[in-house]
Amino acid sequence: MQDATEMKAIIASEPGGPEKLQVITRPVPTPADDQILIKVKAAGVNRPDCIQRAGNYPPPPGASDILGLEVAGEIVKVGANVTDWKVGDSAAALVSGGGYAEYCLAHAGSALEIPKGWSFTEAASMPENIFTVWHNVFQRGKLHAEETLLVHGGSSGIGLTAIQLGKAFGAKVAVTAGSDEKCQACLDAGADLAINYKTQDFVTEIKNWTNRKGVNVILDMVGGDYISKNYVVAAEEGRIVQIAFLNGGVVEADFRRLMMKRLIHTGSTLRARSDAVKADIAKELRMEVWQLLRCGLVKPQIYKCFPFEEAVKAHELMESSSHIGKIMLEL
Ligand SMILES: NC(=O)c1ccc[n+]([C@@H]2O[C@H](COP(=O)([O-])OP(=O)(O)OC[C@H]3O[C@@H](n4cnc5c(N)ncnc54)[C@H](OP(=O)(O)O)[C@@H]3O)[C@@H](O)[C@H]2O)c1
């Protein structure tokens, strides 16, 4: 059979709301020496896709303008230097763009084996969350067994992954979330404490939960007034890892606790990191985490799947923030 030369893909025609998403036709890309070409069966929808669509998160230099940061499917071509993968293999991959398309290029080092029994949709729900959580909670935040982890946005795709990984590595995990239903989902995923921030004060709840000692690691995507509050609820020598600022990043904060408690406040964005850094994270994931997926200790958390052509509905759902876990596109 002849190789396809054209493919359907989704871009934002101009910055704006979900209605700006447009299905277009593009040439099927050709893998460079260290890349693989995946025939996409499913792609994850992530909050950064919405931020990119709105015009506030441009693709890093060299990345595709096609939306989408994670895919799973069948490898149909491999570059000259790729030795770990062959045509016909199934894989899930973290990509720096290009996921909302029939074919997607991935760096071979950012591709991961699909755990036995997982569907392509389940596999595609993992890369963005698991790379982000591993790097920020474990590599930067240095979470250890017996420590406490506080996850803001506990019912997000990122949050539910952080709960499961935190528990799997022996930590006690607390979360904040915006409804009782979301809190229950976090408890079902393994959280020890879920705080509905709309009806409870997380500072008081965390002080009570930790016997006033505070938490060892905080994963924060909210920012805004949480920055000062995080300094209050962090334990001495605590680590606060910032992965987004959904409530704003330009704020007044009282930094004195940072000094008095010897806190570390750090953060990172995954997308712009080099292929080499992502390959190093993937290597650790294969060694430390993949067995947890294989044995079912870490599970996919899929809320809703949409056909590829209904990406507008997928983005509308994500921006309603009524979802719990992952939103997926299927091809
Ligand atoms: N730095 C990185 O490398 C990196 C990588 C991937 C993702 N991220 C970030 O991590 C966050 C989670 O990503 P995701 O794809 O898992 O997103 P998601 O599923 O859409 O989750 C975001 C959640 O945050 C909560 N939230 C709190 N304040 C909010 C606000 N002002 N606006 C909107 N939501 C708010 C919402 O739940 P409540 O109802 O509980 O408020 C919402 O469900 C995003 O901010 C994303 O940009 C960062």
UniProtKB/TrEMBL annotation:
Pfam families: ADH_N, ADH_zinc_N. The keyword Oxidoreductase applies. GO terms for molecular function: NADPH binding; oxidoreductase activity, acting on NAD(P)H. InterPro entries: ADH-like_C (IPR013149), ADH-like_N (IPR013154), ER (IPR020843), GroES-like_sf (IPR011032), NAD(P)-bd_dom_sf (IPR036291), Quinone_OxRdtase_PIG3 (IPR014189). Keywords: NADP, Oxidoreductase. Residues 16-329 form the Enoyl reductase (ER) domain. The keyword RNA-binding does not apply. This is Putative NAD(P)H quinone oxidoreductase, PIG3 family. It comes from Cohaesibacter marisflavi.
